[in-house]
Each structure stands twice: as C-alpha cells, then as structure tokens.
Specification:
Keywords: Cell outer membrane, Membrane, Signal, Transmembrane, Transmembrane beta strand, Transport. The protein has 1044 residues and is mostly beta strands. It has 12 helices and 55 strands. Helix content is 8%, strand content 46%.
Length: 1044
Amino acid sequence: MLLAGSTSEQVKATRVADATTLSTNAQNANKTKIVGVVTDSKTGEPIVGAAVRLKGASAGALTDIEGNFELKASAGDVLIISSVGYSAKEVRVGKTTILSITLSEDTKTLGQVVVTAFGTGQKKETVTGSIQTVRPMELKVPAANLSTAFAGRLAGVISYQRSGEPGSNGADFFIRGISTMNGSEPLIILDGVQISKADLNAIDPEIIDSFSILKDATASAMYGTRGANGVLIIKTKSGADLERPIIGVRIENYINTPINVPKAAGAETYMRMYNEAVRNQGTGDALYSEEYIRNTLAGTDPYQYPNVDWYKEVFKNMTYNQRANMNVRGGTAKVTYFMNFNVSHETGMLRGRSKDFFSFSNSIDYIKYAFQNNVDFHLSPSASIALHLNTQINDYHGPITANNGSGGVNEVFKSIMETNSVANPIMFPQGDLSWYRWGGTKIGSFTPGNPVAMAASGYKDTFESTVIANIDYTQKLDFITKGLSFKGLVSFKNWSFSNAYRFQTYNSYMLASPAKDANGNYNLTSLGGDPSKPILNSGGSSMGDRRFYIQAYINYDRSFGDHSVSAMALYNQDEATINNPGSDLIATLPRRRQGYAFRASYDYAQRYLLEVNAGYNGSENFARGHRWGFFPSIAVGWNVSKEAFWKPLQNTVSNLKLRASYGLVGNDKTVDQRFIYLEEVVLSGDKHRPNFSTGFDGSYESRRGPGFTRYANPQITWEIGKKLNVGLDLQLFKSLNLTVDVFQEIRSNIFQKKETIPNYFGTEDAKIYGNLAKVKNWGVDVAMEYNKQFNKDWTIQARGTFTFARNRVLEYDEAANLRPALRKVGSRLNGLLGYAADGYYIDQADIDHNPKSTLGNIAIAPGDLKYKDQPDKDGNYDGKIDADDRIPMGFPTVPEINYGFGATVQYKQFDFNFTLQGQANVSLMMKDFHPFGTQSRRNVLQWVADDYWSRDNQNPNARYPRLTLHDNRHNQQESSHWLRDASFLKLRNLEVGYRFKFARVYANATNLLTFAPFKLWDPEMGGGRGMSYPLQRTFNLGVQLTFK
C-alpha cells in the first residue's frame, strides 16, 4: 500500500513515506532547519516511516524511503524518534543541524497489540486464546471480493470459490471447518458491528487497519450465541494529527480470462456418436446420413445444415475491468478524519448479442461504489467520540433468461454447454424486427432453448445499497480509579434492494419437410409463440432490512508492579427487521437478541497468564425458560521464554509460549425456521388437513379442517459447542515465528427433524424438531512467518499456513433398521454417498450372473456400469441393486485441508511476491451427463467423445459408458465411477512492483497456474457437470500515488 498512515507501524507497512512536516503551528523565526537520517543500529539500513517529533509539541516529521527527515527546531529542543519494532530514543538538538540517529530493535513491543473480542486490544504476549492477526497489505490482491483473498493466507480458515460470475464470485469460508448441520458461517464484525458476507466482500483493503480471526472458545465465547463458528474482526483506519492531509490514489486496469472452459465435440464427431447411440438403442430414429454430414462440414446451407459454435457466438474469452481508489487522511489535535472512496467496474464474458437484434444491451455491466468516512472528536484527554459511516452501492445490469425475470448469465453458459452445433441455426432469414424466426429443435415433447436467443432477449437492472452508521463514545474514568474506562456504541444499518426487468419472448422454428417451397423459401414449423400476442414482459421487486444495535461496556486495565489485571463487563442488544413484500407474517417480525459478556484476566510479569470469559445471551428462538444460555471459558498460558533459566537460549529460541483453553459456545441458528418451539398450523392446502363432513337432513358436504405442518416442542434449546484448544507460539533466531494450535469441538444439542416417528403415529409429513444430533470436529492449524533483512538492499519475508479440520457425526436421530453404511452416525458432514462401481457389463452373460439393477429406465446392456451388491446389517445380500446399496465414499465436498505459502522479496526499490494455495482431502461427484438424453440439449463434451465404452472400445476403464439415445438413469447414479479427487495447488498471486518517492507501479496476476489430477474443469468449482460460469484468471496493472 502506498498511502502513508498516522502511525509509524502503518507507514512502515506501506514502505512509502517521505520527510513530511506534521506541525500545525507556525514556524518561529528563531528555529532552524534540522536534517537527519534514521538507521537500524544492527544493519545500518534506513528506517522508513520513523516518527520524529519535538518533545512537548505536536510538530514532527516522518522519515522517507532513505530514512531522511527534516524539520525546524531550536537548540536545546528534544527530538523523540520512534518506529514500531524499535525502542524509542530522545536526542537533544545542539549546534549541529545534521543528525545521524540509530534505533535498536525492541522485541518486547514488536506486534504488541492484538484486537480481541469487541474490538478491545490486548498485548500479544499476554494473549491466551487462539487469535490470528493478518496485515492488511496481505489482503491486497487483484480480486473482485475481499473473501477471495483468504485462501491459503489465514490459518484455520477453509475457503473456496465456486463461481466467477460478476456479482456472485465471492468465496465460501469456514473457521476450523464445520461442526453443525445448521448455520456454519462465522460471525463478521466491522468496527464493532455485525455485517453480512456480502458487506465483507464490498470492503476495500485500503480501509482496513487491523484484521483478526478469533478461533477458540476463549476468543469467541463472549459473543455467545453469535460466536459459535468463530469470529472475524475488522477495524477500519482512523485519521491523524497532520499539518497537511495525506492523499492516496490507486488506479488499476485488469483483464479477466476464463479458466478451463469445457469443450464441446465438433459437428462430425457429434453426428457419428448420435448415430451410434441410435443403433445401440434400437429405436429406429433417423440417422445423420453421410450426405448430411458432408453438407454440414462443407457449409452448403447454414440453415438446412447448421454448424454453429455457440460459445463463440455468445461469449468472449477476455474482459476489461477497472478499479480506482482515493483516500484522504488528516486532522488536528482535536478532530481527525479518514475518508476512502472506491469504485470498481466489472464486465462479463457475455458478448451482449441483444444489440445485434434489438435496441437494448444486456451485456454485464457491474459497478460497485464504496465509501468509508471515519471522524474522531478528541473532546478532552479522557473523552472522545468516533463517527463511522460505511456506504456501499452495487449497480448491476445483465441478462435474464425467462419472462419472470429469473435466470442470468449462468443459465446462458449452461445452455451453451448443452447445445450441440448442428441442432439448429441461430435464426432463419424470414422474419422482421417484431418477429424473429429463431432456430429451434424438438426432442420428443421437449423444446430446447436457443442459446443466442436466450442470451439476447432480456435484461435486468438491480440496485443495492447498504449504509452502516456507528457512533461510539469513550470515556476514561481515571478520576474514579486508574485504568477504568467506559465505552458505548450505537449502530444502524439499512439495506435495500430493487430489481426491474424487461424480457422479449423469443419464438423458435424448425425446418419442415421439404425444407424449401417452390419459391425457395424455407418451410418452417413453429415450436411455440403467437405473433398476435404481446411478446414484451416487464416486472420488478424490492426488499430491504434494517438492523439496530447498541453496546456498552466498562473496562478496567491496570498493572501493579509485575501483576497486571484487567476486567470487562458488557451489554448488547440487537434488532433486525426484514421488509420483503412477498414474505409471510412471521418473516416480517423483528428478530431480536440480547446479551451480557464478562472477561477477567491476570498475568504475572507477562509470564503466567490466566483469562476467564463468559457470555450470557438471550434468543427469541426458544420458549420461556430456555431463551437464555450461559457460555463460560477459561484459558491459561505460560511464557516459558521469560523464565530466568531460558536466558541462555534467548538468541536461539527468542520466544516460547504455551497456551490452553476450554469453553462453551452457543448457537441459536435453527433450521431456517423461526419459533420452532411452536406448532405451525395451516388453513389451506390438502396435504396436512383432515377431512370432516358438515350438513344435516341427508345433505352432507366434505370440508377440510386446520392441519399441522410442524408440531410444537417447547424444550428446544441452544446448540452447545464444547471447545478445547492447545497452542504453541514460537520464535527462532528473532526471525522465524511459528504458531501451532490443536483443537477439538463437540457440538451437541444440534437441531434436527425427528426421523424415528413411525407413519402410523399420524404425523404424515408434519415436522417435529429437537436437539437430537451431535458432531465432533477436530484438527490442527499452523501459521509460519520468516522475516530477514540481509542488508540495506535485500529483505525477504516468507509465510505459510496449514489447516486440517475433520468432523464426524456422533449422534443422529435415524431409523434403527438402516444398513450400517447408510447411517449418518459415523459419517462426515458434506460427505458423499454412492454405489460402488465394478467396471462395465461385458456381455449378456455378465448381466445375467450379477445382481439385478432396479435403478434404470431402459434395459441393461453391455457397456452399462456394474454396481456391487452390499450386505445388510446381518451380513446378507439381497441379490439386487437398489438405494440400500449405497456406501460412503471419497472425502467430503468441503476440503479438510487448506494450505498456502508464499514470499515477498524486496531489492532496493523493487519488490516481488507470490502466493501458492492448495486444498486436499476433498472430492467431487460428476453427475447428470446425458449426451443424447431428452432432458438435455443433446450435446457431447469432448472428454466424452475421447473415451467412451463401445463395442470397438471395450475399455473397462473408459470415462463414459455406452451411448444411448435417451436418459440412462442406471448409469447416471452417483457412484465411485463418477467420483473424482478435487485437490489442487494454484499459483494464486504473482506480483512485481517498483517504488518511486511518491508512487509505486506494479503488475500482478491471479490464478496463473493450476496443478490438479482433475482436468475437465476447475476442481475448486466442485461437482456436477462443470457447466457453471467459470472461475477467472486476472492480469492487472496498477499505480499508487501519494500526495502530501
């Protein structure tokens, strides 16, 4: 980051600052100019961004990239020179006006303060919980969303991205894996206030001052109900007392290209494979003749013998995007401010074919605006008020694919992947602007869409805005007792969303027989549509929500010699209201939470550490008597390296701290239903309502009474997580830092629908929920960092993270007669279940001598998949293949292992950095491939054409089974045949830059290389057919400027 900050830590992190006068006072005539240089006492290299101030005054300067500074002072004045990681020094000004000053490293203050629960600071040496802090500069990658920068950079975080579609390209992430079936997302806090993942993705890294992840019970128990899945805390920057404001500007232009787009087979390959499928099926369907194939390849008539590259018609392989950022930082001794404005413009791969046919454009045009304004009023040495305003505006224009406003570019991409090149032309020459004759085809009663028509026929405009406003007041209460303080916070958040769409219904035609009439015009058969009816559709929707939050706490922090104590007592209250016109009554009721939090800590000489925390929280989701939960935790620590016996090892092992914590956390996130302790009664529909008759004198009329869709359970209460953490913090040779944490959580009382109530009980499909399930989650996370400055020219910083998290279901309410392999107890969350494939049937005898399949819709034949019969709970085989023969297989679809490593190298004004990231212990299931099925558009992907079973290629390891004309449900079952290893290693980020005095220019790229055993599409996207909008590779050029 180029922007210089108010503190030397921030300036040093940016490595860009020059000698800038900070004084707000007029210069006196008797002061002379003092110039100097500040260097490291060991290496002799210049210290960038060191603060040089006059003692007893606000005047001062910051050292530039060469360590130089200048300011005006008088003989006898005292200069205070300080920089993060160094011991401060005082120098008295004498007769000389040229100074050379050296600073010595101070390991006691290096990385001293860590942001903990509710934004309070704690000395790193006394932290007993599992907390990782991340430098904001490490999150500055050319990514559209902040969450996509997490992968491989944060120990304990499992992260992956499923889509590259603009507006939907954020990452999913979990802290230490998944411990429950309900609500596994972590809590995200911005400046003390809860925000959503969408809000997080809108944050510009330029505004971040500190970034912390709270992982164990001690770190998160104070959040009670909200902190069960870990907490991510972001604190934004504040202003500074500066003579002149510092202005930072960043401009980036970048190119996106898709990664690993699935390829379709060519026209000839498709037609010959279709003919083979017809012969295999024996249905007598018409074949593509050799004449038809020749005419198609020769381009004889593009309407009668079409050959369309649908992907090139609709999508492009390169998009141009821009980002710009500007921030201002400054203030006086009384008022300081920080303002940041960011705008980004994303386009998509869609060509915007609508302009070729209609008067509108539906190309993707996605503009995001973000504004952060922080103002601090220093009312007195003991009182201050801070105002924070965060505003986000998202303006999206893009395609829709249906006349109700649904669908989008993802559906267009899927349509292209499913449409073969010879199905139909884009459109026929007959027609006019009011009634285009789009090309179409028919498969039985199914009419596939035309990808170009789908992509060109409609658009939507969505407008989304978020405003988060905070005001907090801090008051030191030293007049009562030293170390006592009070802080109160009030926050309001408003989110609104509106959507308007326009859609022009397209009408498809296919060639009749004969193809042309006597005049040479094509004979067309309509596949739907009526020219006399309106073809324009429009509509829209709007919704919003509001959140009001208050928080107040008393804090005490004081030292008595070697004894340090701190304590905090906090109250908070939260109310959220959803305004959605389509919601039912219950959904519109305010959602409320209330809570108290307590913390106390003690340390002796920063050597022996003790901390206790507790959250006492109330939730509306439970009945009276169960609404409040108490969640305590305790942690201990031992700074071994501070013992006297450790002194001989200080130069080798400069820091060694052992930590352990245990505590309870709560979760009130139920199964997407509110007030599940109450019954749910319905007065409409027939499914849940009993019949009764009314009438008299022989006249009877059948009616239905009220029914139940959910039965009451007033005993429903909190999910409880019991978290255990053992950690080690180690520093070797004052340059290599290593943090290792081993963790385990037992999550009990998990909300689950009761599965063991027999049908004769009369509940039918009505649900009964209870605290019935239990899950164990355990693992290890590791963070490593190495910093070494070899001389004034060369510096290297290397980093690495490793996270392993595995879960197992310990208890689950399920039928007792299930086969062992089908039971959830003992399985993993997000695990895969399928049939064990045993190659292909080779002939009819093989079919006759194996268990009979009940899974198919057509007769089993050679070339179909063969599945293994599985034993029941008594070890018996039933001689058939059905749903009871499924078994767990592979790894979960959420990776158990995430890792990353990288380095930053600086040589003089040049800098270079890279990050590699990978995931392992993860599987994906390919499914729903029907090349000639009735519910697909009869397309063949190249990987199928390259290796499928046939009578000429009876390969027992062929990728695809025999070809059939229709859906073959037997072969499409989830099985080990379709199971794939989804692990990968990616070159996530590569950057090179050059620093000038007031600027830095750089070039970087993301997702440059992928090493993976699975090649058909990007394995990070997960299973299915790979027909989603692909992930993107980014090439970016940027410049950062600083004005002072």
